[in-house]
Amino acid sequence: MFVDLLIGLIFGTLALLNGYGPYSVLPFLAAFMLDLDLVVNEFIRIFIKKEKRFSLTTLLDEFSYTHKFIFHLPVLCLPVAFLLGCFVADVLFGFLLMIPMFLHLVHDTVDRNFDGVCWLWPYSKDSFKITKSWAEARWLVVRKTRAHLAAEAKTKKLQRARSTKKIFTDNLI
């Protein structure tokens, strides 16, 4: 959170120095804007989950209660920030809005307290996270979804059953 604060202050100051005056608060807010998913998840958990009649919950179940909600999809949030900045002022301001969001996503990728970011989202639903333990052989850890973990568990169970069956039949001969 403090890294996001520092990023927001730096880019808000850059916007102020470049003459964007009243809009200079937007790059500061852009660094925090991605964490609105935590507020939305709380809203869903408290108000919408109690009401089973909403079909919206089935659409949001895939992303809810994680830190990879719609706000943490780089393919969606970065172009929206850039276009919003271009609409408000100009191309430079678009970059001043997009870069703090990008650095926030990089911070969430490196930070050990978060699940990572879905950098390849339309192609993969896995969250990517860079671990801080550089001694490990692999430094890019893919956080697998529940479906992947269930499929792996099923495969391991079948492999154990086959190996047990093979040992049993070998002992009979």
TrEMBL record:
Keyword Transmembrane helix in record: yes
Give TM segment ranges: 69-102
Q: From what organism does this protein derive?
A: Candidatus Komeilibacteria bacterium CG_4_10_14_0_2_um_filter_37_10
KW Transmembrane helix (keyword) present: yes
Keyword line = Membrane, Transmembrane, Transmembrane helix
* Protein name per Swiss-Prot or TrEMBL: Uncharacterized protein
> What superkingdom does the record give?
Bacteria
